[in-house]
Amino acid sequence: MKNKKLTRNALQCLVCNDIIESTHVHDFKTCSCGNLSVDGGLEYCKISYKENNSWINLTEYEEDN
Question: Which residue, 29, 20, 25, 28, is CA-closest to 56?
Fold first, then answer.
């Protein structure tokens, strides 16, 4: 079984259209309308949101050998 390595931790809010990206651990980012937040950088992906179905996941992974 291959593991995946996080290479981009980003989301797009569909309420305000902001793209937010966390680039390092504890780099907590929130969009301008306050609907969506992301945290974790390239260590983990933590997502918080107020409205269901109001964001697009732009997170990217690569195979980790």
Answer: 20
